[in-house]
User: What shape does this take?
Amino acid sequence: MDTSQYIDLFIEEAREHLQALSDNLLELERDPGNANLIQAMFRSAHTIKGMAASMGFERMAHLTHEMEDRLDDIRSGRAPLADAFIDALFACVDALEGCLQAIVEEGSDASASVEEASRKLAAALGSTTSAEIAATGELAAAKPADAAVSATGEWDIQVRFAADCSMPAVRAYMVYQALQEGLSVTRTDPALERVMAGECGLEFHIFSASGVDVDAVRSQALEVAEVDSVEVTQVAAAAPAAAPSSGAVPGTAQSASGKQSQPAAGAPRAATQAGAKKNQRASQSIRVDLSRLDDVMNRFSEIVMDKTRLRQLASERQDAALEDAVHHFERVCDELQSLLLRIRMLPVDTVFQRFPRMVRDLAKSLGKQVELRLEGQETELDRTVMDEIGDSLVHLIRNALDHGLETPAERREAGKPETGVLRLSAYQQGDDVFIEVRDDGRGLNREKIARKAVEMGLLEADEAAKLSDEQVYGLLFASGFSTAESVSDVSGRGVGLDAVRDTIVGLGGEVDVQSEPGRGTSFILRVPLTLSIIQAMLVRIEDERYAIPLSSLVQIYQVEPEQVKENGNRRYVELGGRLLRLVDAREWLGLEPVDRAQDVIQVAVLGRADKALAVIVDEFLDTEEIVVKPLGGYLQGRIPGISGAAILGDGAVVLIFDAAAWVAQAAGQR
Amino acid sequence: MQYILCRPAGQVYAIAMDAVKSVERVGRLTKVPNTKPFVKGLMNLRGELTPVIDLAHFLELGKTLQSAQARVVVVESADVTLGLLVEYAREVREIADADLDKEDARSRNQAVRAVANVNGEAVGILDINYILDPTHGVITSTQKGA
Assistant: This one.
């Protein structure tokens, strides 16, 4: 069967099931008595096995088959649930992820290694050897010879697929794979060869000669995605016994004198409510290739530019009808824009979900006890932003576990509970999303950071004492800064917090750190909800225009020369009751300086209320909606103080101010 | 292989056609601060932002005169797209690999990977990867000394 066209679907579904396996495994570790979890994991393994087998990924199918057997042993009470077994299952999940990665990269899992996981799994069950397992497996398969099973006559298993099922043939084959072991299949309708050639309608029949455990068959078949209903009927004993290859005998099923008809439509597909909910949601959504979504967004950004241009033209013409039309067009555009932006949003759970496993493994390897609390997983974020922040969060979490949280012994000594708490929370505020990584560990050591900064030449020894705590903590983000005394596996290689800061600032956000000795540390990331379309103030500097995002513009002022105070080679200005550092944009951008000593100057206050910088520009122009574009590989990330560029309604390119970088540079300057 | 010939400041240089994305008229350029003087600015190329450098200036042959004949030759690698401003770019020539003389080409200029003799004229074959290296175009913060 040519399966290439289904590979994307396979990968995505396999990922979901692996995630479910991993989640349930973590839960099981916490709640070992929970039989539902074993059951759910058994189902995940079983589903992956079926999918992998039908796609020809043998290693994956093999390993999931073994997992399924072992889980069945646990489920049926034939083997106890040991810690080693949970570890072995984690190893299996890793191995399966390896298979999937190989499939993504090479189209096959042939290069992936599953032996180690398989060996661990066998070892975890103690003396039970593969042969014995196989025997008990067979026993288990033979066991359901109870009430629901009848040994006489042929059985017709009718499977109906959902009306919107995109590839019934694949699903049919998966159903066949899932069921064939427990049955003695005589034939299928359509015949298996035709199914493998991709020919199958929304209905598929499997005929079995032997006894059938109706409930088991039904639940197994229903686990295959997009299966709508399963009906198991016993056909009259006189039904023609066809050879396995004879294919379809039309009408047989319909003419069956079914006495055990058990329609299963509407039966819960999953044991847990959450599972059922998930399925429901899946049926109401479609999967769209991300690149298509990006295309739509790119096209739309051109419309936004046209909109701005039209607005300018219309205001020049002073034509009421045109004004009206443009006004309506603008409104529709705005609505369309918010719809499109919403389509691109994903819950932060998409990044959060991998952390429980990571935290567990890290805590184990560091000999620490941690409870990870996730909050606000439903908070939504643009997927481009989401793609960028994952690594930063990984870094912050590693840091928190390695440096932040103490060992159980240290915690006991400090009078704290042995298990530390790592809290990962997300929430939205206005057009920003905040993600906080907070630990209740030892807190940052001001003295140590200051000492290191002096060693690195970032700071003069006598300056350190004058800095506020916040300023000292800010030094952590300096390039190459690391206070780790020894370079550990986990973190402390000195590449890190500066990279985190660069990433977040590149997204137009910022990173903040707060800490209290003995009480813990929290890193707070602020990122914009969306990147692509923002409101900005256009300013003129020399003969070019620049854009300042309104989100980072506190206020604009006209300042009289006598309001400017000088202290050494620095200038300050008192605005809104606060004394702010004043810098000239021309100077910082490396442009031709002008003498403004006698002039009223135009000042933009950048940053945030508590961290602001006053910047002199030549002229304030207008606010405009701009479409943000990356600078391209040649310049991106290399121009200090500039985060990107935008194309205006008139086609001109303007550079966008990176306000956070300006504020940071002012704060870091000696 | 096919090459596009350009003549910055009277010298003849060749750019391999397989690196050339397009040849454009010179559009409006937005200056980018803290870059080397040969970086002319950002151009809006049908919605894509393309940095443009003055090729003659990059090769230390003086500045390109922006006449009506001037063009931007857009070259690209996997992750960098760059426009090269040249006075004139119309000739496309086939130059056989056998005709390339790689000896002492670098001594003329780091950006020249070989020299070819085309109809009695010495043509410098440009090393596009060298030109596309972003570190050559930007003033690093240590140089700036803010």
